[in-house]
Design brief:
- The structure holds 2 protein chains of 2 kinds.
- Chain A is mostly beta strands.
- By secondary structure, chain B is mainly beta.
- Helix content of chain B is 0%, strand content 50%.
- In chain B, the strands form 2 sheets. In chain B, strands 2, 4, 5, 6, 9, 10 and 11 form a 7-stranded mixed β-sheet that branches. In chain B, strands 1-3-8-7 form a 4-stranded antiparallel β-sheet, with no helix packed on it.
- Chain B starts with a strand and ends with a strand.
- The chains are: A mainly beta, B mainly beta.
- Chains A and B meet through strand 5, strand 6, strand 10 and strand 11 of A and strand 4, strand 5, strand 9 and strand 10 of B.
Chain lengths: 114, 114
């Protein structure tokens, strides 16, 4: 079965620190890749997505992600975090052969200390 | 706001009871997917409905069932509730005519089974 793994369950960092969250997925052919964020008490929101083209994708709120096909990875980065980035982050993969459904990683809870 | 609305927002049920959760999709979207997000985990795909027909199902027992109506709204029904069914249930709508599209999530229904 296809799977998505996120390397860190919890990350704690200070404001202005850089953030990188890892995401790896299993082989299964062509994929669409997503990062979602869930702020406390809010719905899942899309941060960024990759369908094709430039493997470096820029999203909202200063986030970016890099698709490395050879490593089956789609890591999320932000050069300088803010307290408001405290949230849970989910990597999600849509294997095109499996239709239009998403497989999520287990999530990474990020706490940014002011 | 994503335009996807779910009701109710919270629900408490007793083990063995049945529950119905509702979702209105975003305007223009005719595909609705349901996900279960247990505490501390990423969302897991339950099933998807497209034009009133089930269009893919995850690893959930038959007591999880659904419907989609002509206006593309959807229901998730769970029979014979178990304690482990306690979770946040998410609805997502998308447009299947383009595989390169994102899913828009509602705020979820938090179900507690006691």
């Amino acid at each position: 079965a296809q799977s998505v793994s996120q390397h860190n369950h919890h990350v704690i960092l200070s404001e202005a620190a850089s953030l990188e969250l890892g995401c790896n997925y299993s082989y299964g052919g062509t994929v669409n890749l997503f990062w979602y964020v869930q702020y406390p008490g809010q719905h899942l929101q899309l941060l960024l997505k990759y369908f094709s083209g430039d493997p470096l994708v820029k999203g909202i709120k200063g986030f970016e992600a890099e698709f490395i096909k050879s490593k089956f990875s789609f890591n999320l980065r932000k050069p300088s975090v803010q307290w408001s980035d405290t949230a849970e982050y989910f990597c999600a993969v849509n294997w095109k052969a499996a239709g239009n459904k998403l497989t999520f990683g287990g999530g990474t809870r990020v706490l940014v200390k002011p | 706001e994503t335009g996807v609305t779910q009701s109710p927002t919270h629900l408490i049920k007793t083990r063995g009871q049945q529950v119905t959760l509702r979702c209105s999709s975003q305007s223009g979207h005719n595909t609705v997917s349901w996900y279960q997000q247990a505490l501390g985990q990423g969302p897991q795909f339950i099933f998807q409905y497209y034009r009133e027909e089930e269009n893919g199902r995850g690893n959930f027992p038959p007591r999880f069932s659904g419907l989609q109506f002509p206006n593309y709204s959807s229901e998730l029904n769970v029979n014979a509730l178990e304690l482990d069914d306690s979770a946040l249930y998410l609805c997502a709508s998308s447009s299947p005519t383009d595989m390169n599209t994102e899913a828009f999530f509602g705020q979820g229904t938090r179900l507690t089974v006691v």
